[in-house]
Amino acid sequence: MARRLRRIFRHDNVIYLLLLPSLVGLAVFYVVPFGISIYYAAIDNVVSREFVGLDNLVAAWNNEAFQIAVDNTLIFMGVSIPLNMMLSLVLALILNPLGKKLRRVLLIFFLMPLVIPSGSMVYFWSRLISRTGMLNRVLYYLDIVSYPYNMPNDWLNTDYAMWFIIGIFIWKNIGFNMILFQAGLDFIPKDYYEYASIEGAGRIRKFFLVTLPYLMPTFLIVFILSVVNSFKVFREIFTLTGPYPNRSIYLLQHFLNNQFAGMNYQMMASASFYIFGFIFILVFILYWLQQRQTYI
């Protein structure tokens, strides 16, 4: 009996036992639903369940609402992610020379949007950019608009809506990215900067010759997390605008949510397959770049 117990609780077996709950959760909540989505994308409907091959994927690709959602999502990600990373890096570089106590206080300040409940955050933004919100009142006091006739009904129903959504995304995620960049900066040996100073390098050359190369792994991690977080912004957008927002901020998450509400599982599964393919290719490219950077 004692031998049997020792055999069960060997080092390797203990590792597998500890991993088992996570593996079961991964299979139940991710692998199995993904397999079901592939099945739904290959049948005509849930009643007859006839195999249609790639017809649903073609139908989703040719769907006008899907095309609008893809265009808006790519614009949102193409602007918000680089802008968020750039601002996070700049703030991290500004905070890096400061004392530890002051730096911690400022980092906590920038991290506050992450711990604020979504409902409270949405209420704040709705009071800021609604028709009678703070922004319109400031514009009125500056004599830019005439209250209330020339005010927009709602900034999220104007051509500027995408910029407000980008602002919400940056405001919520900039603190987390700052911490990642700050950690990356702390791991750069100070000797490299001293050697660069001896060689006559200024701040700009130090940044491009020392800081930037050693931050590349951090850049890749921040980029992947930013892509994932860009899909999570739908919660705030949906609460602010509902299932059918202005055309300029109709994102892929809106399309998926509306297809689910309309019980069009085939279209929803097909659209999800495109999203999975996009993320898979992106992560593969980033992994290849990181391996190449490590090799260099």
Written overview of the protein:
The protein has 296 residues and is an all-alpha fold. The chain has a single domain, classed as Orthogonal Bundle (MetI-like fold). The protein is 77% helix and 0% strand. It has 14 helices and no strands. The protein has helices spanning 2-8, 11-41, 55-62, 64-95, 100-115, 118-129, 134-141, 161-186, 190-198, 203-214, 216-232, 234-241, 252-261, 265-295. The mean pLDDT is 79.
Q: How many domains comprise the coordinates? A: 1
State the oligomer. single chain
CATH topology: MetI-like fold
Helical segment tally?
14
What structural category arises from helix and sheet content?
A: mainly alpha
Shape: globular
The total strand number stands at 0
Helix and strand run: HHHHHHHHHHHHHH
Overall average pLDDT: 79
Radius of gyration over alpha carbons?
25 Å
Largest sheet: none
- CATH homologous superfamily title: MetI-like
What is the correct CATH architecture?
A: Orthogonal Bundle
How many angstroms does the end-to-end distance come to?
A: 53 Å
Low-confidence stretches: none
Class, according to the CATH hierarchy?
Mainly Alpha
Residue fraction in strands: under 5%
Q: Into which percent range does the helicity of residues fall?
A: over 70%
SSE order and pairing:
Layout lengths: L1 H7 L2 H31 L13 H8 L1 H32 L4 H16 L2 H12 L4 H8 L19 H26 L3 H9 L4 H12 L1 H17 L1 H8 L10 H10 L3 H31 L1
Helix pairs in contact: 2-14, 3-14, 4-8, 4-11, 4-13, 5-8, 6-12, 8-11, 11-14, 13-14
